[in-house]
Design goal:
The complex is a heterotrimer. Chain A is an all-alpha fold. Chain A contains 14 helices and two strands, in the order ααααααββαααααααα. Chain A is globular and about 50 Å long. In chain C, a hairpin with a 2-residue loop joins strand 9 and strand 10. Classes of the chains: A mainly alpha, B mainly alpha, C alpha/beta.
Chain lengths: 325, 294, 268
């Protein structure tokens, strides 16, 4: 990780760790907790969108699988929570691998439809396999997570579980960008054929990134389940897939800080504005269109560039600034 | 009812919904051929067709034929607005971005519909009553006959349009090679606009026809759109005969699996078909594989 | 010899003279047009061979088939005796055949240095785990790779521009960078697709000099070229293509006089 990112990350971490001391409302802590979970999903999805260059509308399925698998294994089967989270990640990863192989051979918009179709099938299963999942009325009674004597049962305690995990994932992601695989991913997004001729197995890489994004989605889903202790298929619908894709697009495809920005903005803003649920669908559609039409590179990169243009013209953009993660 | 009549019943029911899927699939094909993008909002056109008809005919009590044409015109207008607005003004012309814009548009339309018409399920009366005709022992609703009839008329009209009319041929030219069409003096932008309007109109017709049977609400667009897309893929994406065959086939498959296996997984059939076709034969029934020049 | 030249020196020097790459009856069509029609040729290790021919003769198509971008529909390609038909581009690169493109295909979102480091992808080991955790072995590999990449850039005269974005350097540097990236994978065969395209006379001479220096350090070089000055200057042997088939081969001087070749270029 380069020095600039290290500084940002340190500052970010400090601010994050200090917030609960300033904010006393449990409501706001909950919103921030959900934001952290969304960041995890969005970072994973963004690696796929930004580097494999594909859009997935199916990530609600992975989020949901993480939630339900861990919930069922913990509550119904009685396994300890943490191993079920790992197990859910493995299972989700395998499913993503199996689905990914044929799906990633498809052209762009076919791939979008395939991921959407997959996501809807998973949602149908959540509803119909009600013996296992509780069906449309949901799955209650999921245990909270604990480490040793500490149980993460309140918004405050869960905050200090989920945010360190979130920051950890950010660190891992920044590390990945500056590595052999990171270069391969950048090459893939830049010029797929040249990447292949440079020795990169592009087909395998796309699947690996897809699986990675699915695994991260699953992790977030499992954490979510053990936080809210009650889950239902509604949460893991097509609309959630749209929400996270909008966060990716706002943040800028391929940008990790952008993912943080997008997830934070679209999780917190609706709460602050007390957006009535009736307007939220309309607003998301509107935001999606506006950002895509006017800022196809992302709202966050658009803002960053606008800020940069205010600097003296002597500063060239030739140097690494443009691709920092 | 013996087995034969039951199967026949499933068949008729499947052909009915299949005709609607075919109309939706044709709508996808037209925009795909003219622009290369998948119009995610196609399903919403269908939903809006039902909604507008309910407003014009049900609330405003306009005569049915007038309401029909007003609805079709309105949704065609929506299609044109979509093209002239976000699509045309998009800074990026990349296909994937444009597809995402149509996704945003479909969400927007859904949200708008939710605000205007609420979340309730709404319906239309059948065009000519509900007394079924008995064909070989199976009951066929008059609405189904309307659907078959109008769909056939539309398909024939479209065929003639693309084959004989100047506008239709211009559209085919744009589909074959945009640059060449431009050089030949065809106003490509207007052709694209027209194709969006036409797809809107087709979607509206589908919505008007099916609502008396399946009812409608603000969120039916997504599932209908996906099923229409499945049908288009099944038959060979971009091909009109493929869209028709795909639509009918999908409708029948759905109907039979609902009847013989379980109605709960009925929706899953379309998506399963979609995935299977995409994975094993993406070119569909009537498509061919091409080596692409790099 | 400079350290850099020694480092670029492949161990492949020992197999000079033997056939390193062979094409047998290659055929492929696109939408009914036969781009290659029974093309066969043999390349000996250590030589510089130029493939020439009028537009549409199939030169780039032949390279694309050899490097796995197009499938081997008819015929076969053998590299060091073994068939590489059906292999994907990344596998062919890993085996030791690298290439450049007619229109420069750099990774515009990376720096000059990173482009070369990416070229070493097939010679590196670290994967996702190393990428995430940056443990000591991974960091060591990264440092070594960066070092070697800088040496390669130095050979190509691009070291001062190592931190520039690849899209922000002049075209002559971009062409060199692409060759540098190809050389990063330590190939035995280097395929250059029109290396002189877009270069002026002086730049072309510099390119010729570069290619000669490259050959002295190891790889067999095959170039597709339109620029006859370059071809006459550096090629040991010339293969002439026309309408997907070979219509002549031999030393540059002989080809220049060949009636069949001239007729092909002038059209019938």
């Amino acid at each position: 990780m380069n020095r600039q990112n290290k500084i940002y990350l340190c500052a970010f971490t400090i601010i994050v760790l200090l917030i609960p001391t300033l904010v006393s409302s449990n409501y706001y802590l909950m919103v921030l907790n959900i934001a952290a979970l969304n960041i995890i999903v969005v970072v994973g999805l963004n690696l796929f969108v930004g580097y494999a260059g594909q859009i997935s509308l199916g990530h609600a399925a992975f989020y949901g699988m993480g939630a339900y698998i861990s919930a069922i294994l913990t509550t119904t089967i009685g396994l300890p929570a943490w191993p079920t989270i790992i197990l859910a990640m493995v299972i989700t990863g395998l499913v993503a691998y199996v689905i990914g192989i044929p799906t990633l051979k498809l052209e762009g918009h076919y791939l979008v439809m395939a991921t959407l179709g997959f996501s809807i099938i998973i949602n149908i299963l959540m509803v119909q396999l009600d013996g296992l999942t509780g069906g449309p009325s949901g799955f209650p009674g999921i245990s909270h997570l604990g480490i040793g004597p500490i149980v993460f049962a309140t918004d405050f305690t869960f905050y200090y579980l989920v945010w360190p995990i979130c920051v950890g994932i950010l660190i891992l992601s920044f590390n990945l960008i500056r590595s052999r695989i990171g270069r391969a991913m950048a090459a893939l997004s830049s010029n797929e054929i040249a990447a292949g001729c440079a020795g990169i197995d592009t087909d395998a890489l796309k699947i690996q990134i897809f699986v990675l994004s699915a695994v991260l989605g699953s992790l977030a889903g499992s954490l979510y389940a053990h936080y809210v202790t009650f889950i239902s298929p509604e949460t893991f619908s097509f609309f959630y897939s749209i929400q996270v894709i909008t966060m990716v697009i706002i943040g800028g495809m391929g940008s990790i800080w952008g993912s943080v920005f997008g997830a934070l903005l679209l999780t917190i803003l609706p709460q602050i504005l007390h957006v009535v649920e009736a307007y939220s669908v309309l607003t998301y559609g509107g935001i999606l269109m506006v950002v895509l039409v006017f800022f196809p590179q992302g709202l966050f990169p658009g803002l960053v560039e606008a800020y940069r243009k205010r600097r003296p013209a002597a500063m060239p953009l030739s140097v690494k600034e443009v691709r920092q993660g | 009812m013996n087995v034969f009549t039951q199967l026949l019943q499933f068949l008729f029911s499947g052909l009915t919904t299949g005709s609607i899927y075919a109309l939706i699939a044709i709508g996808f094909s037209i925009i795909q051929n003219a622009t290369g993008i998948v119009n995610f909002a196609q399903g919403e056109f269908v939903m809006l067709g039902g909604m507008f008809m309910i407003t014009f005919f049900g609330f405003l009590k306009l005569p049915m034929v007038l309401a029909f044409f007003l609805t079709v015109a309105s949704v065609a207008l929506v299609g044109c607005l979509l093209e002239r607005g976000p699509i045309r003004h998009s800074r990026s012309k990349e296909v994937l971005i444009l597809v995402m814009i149509t996704i945003g548009a479909s969400i927007f339309m859904k949200g708008l519909s939710m605000m205007v018409w609420g979340k309730d399920t709404l319906t239309l009366p059948s065009f000519s009553g509900d007394t079924p005709t008995i064909i070989f022992g199976a009951a066929v609703m008059p609405q189904s006959l309307w659907i078959f009839g109008i769909t056939i008329v539309i398909v024939v009209a479209l065929h003639l349009f693309f084959k004989r009319s100047l506008l239709g041929k211009a559209l085919r030219a744009v589909a074959a090679n945009r640059k060449t069409a431009m050089l030949a003096g065809i106003p490509v932008h207007r052709m694209v606009l027209f194709s969006f309007g036409l797809s809107g109109a087709l979607g509206a017709v589908g919505g008007i026809l099916i609502t008396p049977i399946t009812t409608t609400s603000f969120n039916v667009g997504l599932i209908l759109g996906l099923k229409g897309f499945s049908a288009a893929i099944l038959g060979g994406y971009g091909s009109m005969p493929g869209a028709i065959v795909g639509g009918l086939l999908l409708g029948v498959l759905e109907s039979f699996s609902a009847g013989l296996i379980s109605s709960q997984f009925k929706n899953a059939v379309a998506f399963l078909v979609l995935l299977l076709v995409l994975f094993f034969k993406p070119s569909g029934l009537f498509g061919t594989k091409h080596l692409r020049r790099v | 010899m400079r350290t850099v030249d020694v480092l670029m020196h492949n161990i492949h020097k020992d197999d000079t003279g033997t056939a390193i790459l062979r094409a047998y009856g290659l055929g492929i069509s696109f939408g009914g047009v036969e781009a290659l029609n029974g093309l066969s040729f043999s390349i000996a290790a250590g030589e510089i061979v130029a493939i020439i021919g009028p537009n549409g003769a199939g030169k780039t198509t032949a390279i694309n088939v050899i490097t796995g971008i197009y499938p081997v529909v008819r015929g076969d390609v053998r590299f060091q005796g073994s068939s590489i038909a059906g292999l994907k581009p990344f596998q062919i690169t890993a085996l030791g055949i690298a290439r450049t493109f007619q229109q420069v295909q750099l990774f515009a979102n990376m720096t000059v240095l990173e482009n070369v480091m990416t070229g070493m992808h097939s010679r590196m080991k670290s994967g996702f785990l190393g990428g995430f955790l940056h443990y000591r072995a991974q960091r060591r590999e990264e440092t070594g790779v960066e070092q070697r990449a800088r040496e390669i850039l130095d050979f190509f005269g691009l070291l001062p521009k190592a931190d520039y974005m690849a899209s922000h350097i002049p075209i002559r540097d971009q062409k060199r960078l692409e060759i540098a990236r190809a050389m990063a994978s330590n190939p035995r065969v280097l395929l250059l697709d029109e290396p002189a395209a877009g270069l002026n006379i002086r730049e072309t001479e510099e390119m010729a000099e570069l290619i000669r220096r490259l050959r002295n350090n190891g790889p067999t070089i095959i170039l597709v070229e339109h620029n006859m000055h370059l071809v006459m200057d550096i090629a040991d042997r010339v293969i002439v293509l026309h309408q997907g088939n070979k219509i002549g081969e031999g030393p540059p001087a002989a080809i220049q006089q060949d009636q069949v070749v001239m007729a092909a270029y002038l059209g019938e």
